[in-house]
């Protein structure tokens, strides 16, 4: 039975995502990706134009920008918009840890692939910034600097990714993603001056 073109492309992307997360971009070869995907190495060039193309396709295919774009945040109350967007950011980064780790690696390394990552991240964080500014304009949020406020929201929304590094500190308490998202949103809204968070 022959594999269809979409099947083999997805297998290559899944294998690449797993290997990029485990070994990093530089530590992963096209041959390794194809071996893990059960694909001929020539298919990397044919479908993606090389390893850089595979990386770009992994980010674009697995980052849920369509899911986030499906909501018109301009129609939402700023509080509800922040609540929804921060919850989704946490759920997405929790649901696909491999992609989250790949994005984090490139951001920390400030690699040539950083722009590929930024192309998807800027849309999300710009939406958060717009909600913050609109909330301040409407008198719902209180902060001095929109940049500092955004950095704090980013820090809280992404901090759960580091929980695995501090398991000894958390004792044996297991916290689900829904609980993490709810507490993060509450913390952010209280920090923005919302009394009934």
Automatic annotation (TrEMBL):
| All copies of domain HTH tetR-type, residue ranges | 6-66
Q: Which Gene3D superfamilies match?
A: Homeodomain-like, Tetracycline Repressor, domain 2
Q: Which UniProt keywords apply?
A: DNA-binding
- Say yes or no: keyword Lipid biosynthesis present: no
Q: Determine the domain of life of the protein's source.
A: Bacteria
Protein name (record): TetR family transcriptional regulator
Q: Which Pfam families does the entry mention? A: TetR_N
Q: Give the DNA-binding residues.
A: 29-48
The family database entries (PROSITE patterns) matched by this protein are listed as: HTH_TETR_2
Give the originating organism. Paenibacillus zeirhizosphaerae
Which InterPro entries does the UniProt entry name for this protein? Homeodomain-like_sf (IPR009057), HTH-type_TetR-like_transc_reg (IPR050109), HTH_TetR (IPR001647), Tet_transcr_reg_TetR-rel_C_sf (IPR036271)
